[in-house]
Amino acid sequence: MIRIVLLGPPGSGKGTQASALEKRRGVPHIASGDLLRANVRDSTALGRKVKPYMDRGELVPDELILDMMADRLSQPDAQQGYVLDGFPRTVKQAEALEERLRALSQDLDAVVYLKVPEAEILRRLGGRRTCPHCNAVYHVDTMPPKREGICDKCGATLVQRDDEKPAVIRKRLEVYSAQTQPLLDYYQARGLLREIDGMIGVDNVIREIETIVAAAQAAV
Ligand code: AMP
What we know:
binds adenosine monophosphate, Rossmann fold, 7 strands, globular, two-stranded antiparallel ribbon
């Protein structure tokens, strides 16, 4: 059982870490961005509403996110814990999550903040390629697929997400500082925030997260 939130700017490695934790701990990696993109791809009512915000690199309105996440978190596989990636993104979303946890007499083990310098983020996101079919993520320099442009896992053609083009990346980083930074204060005030240097390598970050979770669970 593990229940954590990963925080950090786009490109800080939240998705990679969350996928690794999902494999190691058997709890679902729940990424609000992936859920939204699936809705856009399937052209659902939600997908049609959120697409313009996503294309501009802006946050989707809280009400839409909160409904979608309430739905996802009530599914059977999330009852034994989860790793949240990309949610909460605003203080309002954090308050809604806290309320939900309180109602279920549950707690978060930790909120992990992955700290990465902006120049590194631009490099990481600019080279990122995503599988539109299974959401696997690659990087042209640091994590290339075995065959250029093809997903190792499912064979689909990789794409550069529209919101990973330079102008939109800059916008997302601005939005992040303005709206997500206050979350750090929110979780700091609750004694849940743990900061990790996102530059120490994927395996070391995972080890630190595991240590943080073990310490939190030992303290209960
Ligand atoms: P991500 O893949 O987490 O970087 O999310 C991609 C885009 O989806 C963001 O730029 C936002 O437009 C939207 N999004 C994802 N999660 C949230 C959230 N929790 N609140 C608002 N918008 C979100």
